[in-house]
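STRUCTURE:
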């Protein structure tokens, strides 16, 4: 019995061993199949199951004007491609791939024409037939196995493979047949290019700066960027903090939320920037200067309303740039250039003497009339540009006539025994301060008695604006203190940091010194600076205006710069307006071979002051209403949707049943009116044809021509009276059209 039991156990063990052996063979065989025949399939599966950590790039913040207008923001443009061989990128069985291929081919065959018609509407540079021929070439190359010019995985959607589409164009294209399908059908993919857009062209370009990504450091993975201006100074605020996400089986999971960059609101005013740039450009061109710059500051707050920096490009045109070139070593001259300021420094030196009681307003100073306005001090001749009329001159006349002799005598006689007291006063006045508005800002300097290079002649040199290096910002800040009755304000360029329209941090106007100058000193300086502009034969007479009262000081610093053996002087005018209640302080400087600040910078200052005050003048419109004659409104041909909007705002009834209310899809035509009613005559705009813009204003004429793919230029003003390309014909992309306007 026990012998029989042993046989059963033996058979069971043999059966168990055999079972394990068979399973082992199956496992080894399956492993071999996986490692050979199914290797690629399982590699694809593993690839999809991998968890990828991917950073979420934050959106860079915007830069706003003082009124919240968008000055700099982020835009994106796209370069679209079609991957004809995209089904190979998916892990599909042969049967599923074949089924999807048939579905894809049927959709492409049915909707290709409709897609091309839509593309021609969105991108009028090519016709629908040209789009279709281009795409069919790529399809044919793919089906025949040819690589073609662009390859089968990266075939450009547009005939020009370098063309970028705007955000609007690209997202309109996504709504077209074929392109609105999933990627397995459309094969569409894109390259993105993000860039910073300045919405007011070159205005304040050197101050706003730029931000661009040059690439990535291969070792650290960090971005290599090119930053300038405000984009550089406030990079940490604007850039935000990247987030982190990962993918699991094609699902995106956010691990660390992204923090988008915050916006900064500046003190810059777009209208004032435009006024300053136009006046400076006109003045530099008229006087043949090489470069020039302007700072406009609000007296009570220290807010910088405008900074303009213009220099000649290689073509001779004046441009504002944030980059250096051979003619433009420091693009932001107003903040970065350290130069001997010349005679506009004389009020600074005089203020020190007045504060310390070294001289009084009605004291007299020797003029050296008998010597022809020439004096020798410390072995060096000092000359006056304006020949003296008397043997002595008052303190006011010293500033009025920009007397080098007068200032040298006042400062040298007052401080020759205590020169450190004079230099300490200059420090108190901010003549060594760096306000840190931008990274490029220069730090002013001058020698002191503690310096090894100090010389006995430095006192008289500094009294005339030499032996010191100053920025335009420091000088305009000092003059602003005079205009502000002795209260010294810190220059302010950024007023707030914002997130989603809400203020996160506000920078209030900052007082650096409640009473830097005594009231008596302020009044003496104001009278002297007014005399510079308003007195007969004064150096700043060309700044005199019948529209606004101006006070200021001219300056000419010789040999400020030498280029190719040619000497350039720094010609300046700095002052404030209106004198009776100062609102703005301004400095205008330019580099020119010869001349003076009174003949070059003073007229520019005058133009700026007049236009700034004209813009700020407000009158009651009710006073201009014609209560006798009743006139029916008229409008130029063009955008009737906009015209209808204005008429409705004015409570004027119209028969506007056939007028579109969508400002993005306006109705075009003309206003038709009689004594009883106002109506519209609608004009159809045919796509891909040259529009008829006769009778339209410049804005509507330019819009329609550019929409048709043409390149219009305009001369004159008023209504369009002629166009060089006859309307109605086919619009060929890039064709130039000359439009003439007349009142």
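SEQUENCE:
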């Amino acid at each position: 019995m026990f012998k029989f039991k042993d046989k059963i156990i033996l058979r069971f063990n043999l059966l168990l061993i055999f079972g394990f052996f068979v399973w082992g063979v199956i496992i080894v065989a399956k492993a071999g199949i996986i490692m050979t025949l199914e290797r690629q399939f399982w590699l694809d599966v593993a690839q999809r199951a991998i968890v990828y950590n991917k950073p979420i790039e934050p959106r860079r913040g915007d830069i706003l004007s003082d009124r919240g207008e968008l000055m700099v923001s982020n835009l994106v443009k796209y370069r679209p491609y079609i991957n004809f061989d995209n089904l190979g990128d998916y892990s599909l069985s042969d049967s599923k791939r074949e089924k999807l291929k048939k579905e894809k081919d049927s959709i492409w065959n049915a909707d290709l024409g409709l897609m091309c018609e839509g593309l021609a509407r969105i991108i009028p540079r090519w016709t629908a037939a040209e789009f279709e021929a281009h795409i069919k070439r790529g399809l044919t190359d793919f089906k025949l196995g040819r690589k073609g010019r662009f390859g089968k995985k990266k075939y450009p959607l547009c005939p020009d493979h370098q063309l970028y589409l705007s955000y609007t164009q690209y997202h309109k294209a996504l709504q077209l047949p074929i392109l609105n399908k999933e990627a397995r059908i459309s094969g569409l993919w894109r390259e993105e290019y993000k860039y910073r857009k300045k919405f007011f062209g070159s205005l304040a370009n050197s101050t706003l700066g730029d931000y661009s990504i040059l690439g990535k450091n291969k070792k650290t993975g960090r971005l290599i960027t090119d930053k300038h201006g405000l984009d550089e100074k406030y990079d940490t605020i604007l850039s935000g903090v990247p987030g982190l996400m990962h993918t699991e089986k094609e699902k995106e999971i956010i691990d660390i939320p992204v923090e988008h960059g915050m916006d900064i609101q500046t003190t810059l005013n777009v209208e004032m920037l435009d006024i300053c740039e136009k006046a400076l450009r006109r003045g530099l061109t008229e006087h043949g200067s090489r470069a020039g710059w302007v700072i406009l500051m609000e007296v009570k707050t220290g807010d910088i309303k405008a900074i303009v920096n213009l220099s000649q490009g290689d073509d001779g045109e004046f441009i504002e740039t944030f980059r250096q070139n051979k003619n433009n070593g420091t693009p932001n001259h107003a903040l970065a250039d350290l130069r001997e300021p010349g005679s506009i420094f004389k009020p600074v030196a005089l203020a020190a003497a007045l504060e310390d009681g070294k001289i009084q307003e009605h004291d007299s100073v020797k003029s050296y009339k008998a010597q022809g306005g020439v004096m020798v001090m410390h072995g060096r001749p000092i000359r006056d540009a304006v020949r003296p009329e008397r043997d002595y001159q008052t303190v006011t006349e010293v500033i009025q006539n920009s007397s080098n002799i007068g200032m040298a005598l006042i400062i040298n006689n007052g401080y020759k025994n205590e020169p450190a007291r004079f230099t300490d006063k200059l420090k108190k006045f901010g003549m060594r301060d760096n306000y840190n508005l931008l990274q490029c800002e220069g730090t002013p300097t001058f020698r002191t008695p503690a310096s090894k290079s100090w010389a006995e002649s430095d006192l008289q040199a500094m009294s005339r604006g030499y032996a010191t290096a100053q920025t335009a910002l420091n000088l305009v800040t000092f003059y602003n203190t005079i205009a502000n009755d002795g209260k010294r304000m810190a220059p302010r360029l950024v007023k707030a940091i914002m997130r989603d329209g809400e203020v996160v941090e506000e920078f209030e106007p900052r007082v650096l010194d409640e009473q830097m100058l005594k009231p008596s000193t302020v009044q003496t300086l104001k009278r002297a600076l007014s005399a510079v502009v308003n007195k007969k034969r004064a150096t700043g007479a060309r700044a005199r205006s019948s529209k606004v009262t101006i006070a200021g000081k001219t300056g000419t610093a010789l040999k400020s710069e030498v280029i190719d053996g040619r000497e350039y002087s720094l010609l300046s005018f700095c002052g404030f307006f209106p004198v009776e209640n100062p609102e703005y302080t301004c400095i205008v400087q330019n580099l020119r071979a010869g001349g003076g600040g009174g003949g070059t910078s003073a007229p520019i200052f005058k133009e700026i002051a007049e236009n700034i005050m004209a813009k700020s003048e407000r009158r009651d419109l009710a006073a201009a209403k014609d209560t006798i004659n009743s006139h029916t409104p008229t409008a130029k041909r063009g955008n009737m949707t906009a015209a209808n909007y204005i008429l409705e705002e004015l409570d004027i009834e119209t028969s506007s049943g056939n007028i579109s209310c969508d400002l993005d899809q306006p109705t075009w035509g003309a206003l038709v009116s009689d004594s009883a009613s106002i109506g519209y005559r609608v004009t159809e705009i045919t796509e891909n044809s040259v529009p008829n813009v006769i009778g339209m204003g410049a804005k509507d004429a330019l819009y329609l021509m550019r929409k048709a793919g043409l390149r219009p230029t305009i001369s004159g003003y008023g209504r369009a009276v002629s166009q060089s390309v006859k309307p109605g014909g086919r619009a060929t992309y890039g064709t130039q059209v000359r439009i003439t306007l007349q009142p």
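REMARK: The chain has a mean pLDDT of 86.
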